[in-house]
Amino acid sequence: MLTYKKKKLKNLKILNLNFGPQHPAAHGVLRILLELKGETIKKIDPHIGLLHRGTEKLLEKKTYIQGLPYFDRFDYVSMMTQEHAFCLVIENLQKTNIPKRSKILRVIFTEITRLLNHLLNITTHALDVGAMTPFLWGFEEREKLFEFYERVSGARMHAAYFRPGGLNSDIPLNLLNDIYNFCIQFPSRVDELEELLTLNRIWLQRLKNIGVINLKSSQNWSLSGPMIRSSGLTWDLRKSYPYEFYNFLNFKIPVGLRGDSYDRYLIRIEEMRQSIYIILQSINLICKGPINVKNLQMKFNRQDFKYDMEKLILHFKRWGKGWSFNKNGSFYKSIESPKGEFGVFIKSFSKYKPYRCKIRAPGFYHLQNLTQISKNILISDLVTLIGTYDVVLGEIDR
Q1: Same domain, 263 and 317
Q2: pLDDT of 297
């Protein structure tokens, strides 16, 4: 057997390197300045803002209905969950309770969105590490889920399906049957992904004990979602502060043991299984009824009209100016998006437009923690770490 003596490298110079924004492992328009000593990272400086569109400021100039489609475009992997937060904050501001059928349908499509997000994250993360097959298999399942989006809204991604007071329209015939059939076959697809990855020795070597975050650090950095659950804390807004129909559903919150990248992978795998369980329960609980609030406080105060022309004028007026709020106020509402706590704060002075709209994006808090976690790791591990952080720069830059 041949043996080699390890030579000590002397006088290594610090190398400054740009990681991104063109790097395929950057998961968005992210630029990272690295200080390297050999292949070891000594300092890291994430640069954001390359995608900045000033959306929070634009929302101040839009009516509430005009502002809704912007939320599809923040995190363009978790579209309907962000619409959900915007609708909930308006409904809480006006103390509006939506019909039961709308609540259940919202839960179904929120969990479909969670599946879309985790399928993309896990498969592209595997692609970053060097595995091609999970990407192809996962995106085949995503196409089936996009079909459900398209059938209710006409759009594959930017659906604008959730509306304050309910939904844009009711679901088409036989959609729930097709969603049920998907849920029956999907766990076997998750099993196939796990056969490729979970006990794969290369996958274990690349993820285990990489990017370890302890519980105290997770709380100090305001992490949420799979990031904080990987540290051992059972924190999920669907359980901690239930909204919509989640308090009537039975599901588990997976948590990690070590707080490393491998734990975060396992948590997302289990969350997909739990999402299927939630969808199946919701399908069994679906009921007939309206999908929108009839007596919205956001409607224009009007008397009964005798002529169709006046109704037509009212229609143009309503969709031209949008909903009107009868009283001023402010409210913050957060939901458990696939990436963590996504929150929306609205301050209302004007009748038709928000005076201020502030977004709480989970990816922003996760990305600022990257500086601390990345010290003294190899540059190849940084690729693994960014993949397991599940950042999308659309919600971070806004």
Answers
A1: yes
A2: 41
- Decide if pLDDT at 355 tops 70: yes
- The answer on 19 and 100 residing in a single domain is no
Enclosing domain of residue 239? 57-397
**What does the alpha-carbon distance between residue 196 and residue 214 come to, in Å, rounded to a whole number?**
28
pTM comes to 0.85
Q: What is the pLDDT of residues 172-187, one digit of tens each?
A: 888 999 999 999 999 9
Mean pLDDT score of the chain = 83
Same domain as 207, residue 165: yes
The one-letter amino acid at 324: S
My answer on whether 223 and 158 are in the same domain is yes
Categorize the per-residue pLDDT at 308 as very low, low, confident or very high, splitting at 50, 70 and 90: low
